[in-house]
Specification:
single chain; alpha/beta; six-stranded parallel beta sheet; 24 helices; 22 strands; 37% helix; 17% strand; binds thiamine diphosphate
Length: 570
């Protein structure tokens, strides 16, 4: 059967299980849009191509599948760059399809010609230009395999306009991927495996560092068994949150720059770190020269390039987290680590009060209150998509996730503007789930045009703006490290509730703690999108904090914790 390239693309995407495409049209991709109109694929018209990539990313992270974004050549493609980099740094499987000028004018600086494969080379797992209609089906199938295989990541397929228009034979069987055979390298030798087992069975103060890879490999059940068999306390990376239930007594909470003090101290005191599906990012290690000096280290990781990259380890088990954990399980001895676990509980006793629920209303509205109330009201079961900044860290501290894929956040790149579009993508992936975008007043202003997408698509998400009138996290750094010289961080914003109304969305403004729960309840009961502008304390900071490059145990604590102080108020 002969079909135009554009139709081959749509047919291939359909056969690959795609339902939604997040995109924005333009001249160089118009043949594909024409074919989309004839297909069963649902196209979500975004308001900016960055939004399309974050939606595809949010879709991928919420579903465990692949998200698809589409744009035209030139500015359409370059607008995708931030979203592609975001997906790359967080290993999210996104396939981006861009239109390209006709192959006859490639290289002539034609109108809206840009070398998008050149630009995205370092931020894609793979990218490719397609100039012939007959190559489209195979290339797209390969893109899907690569995006979700091994360590996932974004793939970009740039299709010239003439390839979209030309007709070619469409034969699904004949277009099977032709990827080079995987180099067969043993993941680890027996001696390495035995060394890991020996370390696991002899450690007195073991601690697991649980990362995103556990979720990506679907290793949650194997991981839970592993943890309970070995009685290992677990510290979470930001992206690992959700892969192990927050309410499990062995879950200590988040590590790193804004991790819990007791977690960071426990890492520094451990005699064995078992890193699973994490990459020792500088935000979790602090100064490498002083990082966990007394600990032996085991690294379970699918990407060989991560081994010994930041932290030298004693045993590296390269492979899929689930497979490695399942292979280890029969060798793990159940050990009594109660002295060590009790010691960590004592470290916790010293730390800032986290149980803010019992505190009386002090008249202040703290972001932590809002997020903790949101957690309570949703019983921790909502999908929360955060933006980047203080509210992101408070979410990680005060919303306790028991379920995988319920915290979606830009960890590696730290992309402001991520939350609103990624929440839209997550809602498409999980239409029956409750989805909350938790976003700062700064980040929200970066991609708030996507409110129109919500209205056009008639979707129901909830938006909580944690509005402190500042680019809060940067203000915090200025407070701590630049003598409170608040240059370029005080931030004027529109009246967000009125703005929502202008889009046809219900908007609320909250200034007092007593209003938080009733407003969250009313928003949850609504069948439509609701935006809530929470006017929170302006100069609050996230504690504890390990300054960039400082030692992990060297934490800045809250000088006088208002959350604690309020407890003693009459
Ligand atoms: C695209 C982008 N630009 C700049 C930054 C640097 N940055 C990190 S946090 C932050 C402030 C965020 O402010 P806001 O969105 O109001 O959230 P808050 O920290 O107040 O919760 C900035 C500017 C970033 N992460 N991303």
């Amino acid at each position: 059967m002969k079909l135009p390239g554009a139709e081959i693309l749509c047919e291939s995407l359909t056969r690959l299980g795609v339902r939604e495409i997040f995109g924005y049209p333009g001249g160089a991709i118009l043949p594909v849009y024409d074919a989309l109109g004839k297909s069963k694929l649902h196209h979500v018209l975004v308001r900016h191509e960055q939004g399309a990539t974050h939606m595809a990313d949010g879709y991928a992270r919420a579903s465990g599948g692949i998200g698809v974004a589409m744009a035209t050549s030139g500015p359409g493609a370059t607008n995708m760059v931030t979203g592609i980099a975001t997906a790359m740094l967080d290993s999210s499987p996104v396939v981006c399809i861009t239109g390209q000028v006709s192959s006859k004018v490639l290289g002539s600086d034609a109108f809206q010609e840009i070398d998008i494969t050149g630009i995205t080379m370092p931020i894609t797992k793979h990218n490719v230009v397609v100039t012939h209609a007959e190559d489209i089906a195979r290339t797209v199938r390969e893109a899907f395999l690569i995006a979700n295989g091994g360590r996932p990541g974004p793939v970009l397929v740039d299709i010239t306009k003439d390839a979209q228009q030309a007709s070619a034979e469409f034969n699904w069987e004949a277009s099977a991927p032709k990827l080079p055979p995987k180099r067969q390298r043993p993941n680890h030798d027996q001696a390495e495996f035995d060394r890991a087992v020996e370390l696991l069975n002899t450690a007195k103060r073991p601690l697991i560092l649980a990362g995103h890879g556990i979720m990506v490999s679907g290793a949650m059940r194997a991981f839970e068994q592993f943890v309970h068999t070995g009685n290992y306390p677990v510290a979470m990376t930001l992206l690992g949150i959700g892969c192990f239930p927050a309410n499990d007594p062995l879950n200590l909470g988040m590590m790193g720059m804004h991790g819990e003090a007791w977690v960071n101290n426990a890492i520094q005191e451990a005699d064995l770190l078992i890193a699973v599906g994490m990459r020792f990012d500088d935000r979790v290690t602090g100064d490498l020269r002083t990082y966990a000096k007394g600990a032996r280290k085991i690294h379970i990781e699918i990407d060989r390039a991560e081994i010994n990259k930041n932290v030298k380890v004693d045993a590296a088990l390269v492979g899929d987290a689930r497979e490695v954990l399942e292979k280890l399980m029969p060798h793990i001895q159940t050990r009594d680590h109660s002295i060590w676990i009790r010691h960590i509980a004592e470290l916790k006793g010293d730390s800032a009060v986290r149980d803010i629920q019992t505190l009386p209303d002090s008249g202040h509205l703290y972001a932590a209150h809002v997020i903790n109330d949101l957690w309570k009201e949703t019983r921790g079961e909502a999908i929360v998509v955060t933006d980047v900044g203080q509210h992101q860290m408070w979410e990680a501290q005060y919303y306790h996730h028991n379920l995988p894929r319920t915290l979606i956040t830009s960890g590696g790149l730290g992309t402001m503007g991520f939350a609103l579009p990624a929440a839209i993508g997550a809602k498409f992936a999980k239409p029956d789930s409750e989805v909350w975008a938790v976003v700062g007043d700064g980040g929200f202003q970066m991609t708030m045009s996507e409110l129109a997408t919500i209205v056009q698509e008639k979707i129901n998400i909830k938006i909580a703006i944690i509005n402190n009138g500042y680019l809060g996290m940067v203000r915090q750094w200025q407070e701590f490290f630049y003598d409170k010289r608040y240059v370029a961080t005080p931030l004027v914003a529109p009246d967000f509730a009125a703005l929502a109304n202008a889009f046809g969305i219900r908007g609320e403004r909250i200034t007092a703690r007593a209003e938080v729960i009733p407003t969250i309840r009313a928003a949850r009961e609504s069948a439509e999108t609701v935006l809530i502008d929470f006017r929170v304390e302006q100069e609050d900071s996230v504690y504890p904090m390990v300054a960039a490059g400082a030692s992990l145990h060297d934490m800045i604590r809250r000088p006088n914790n208002p959350l604690v102080e309020t407890a003693s108020e009459p």
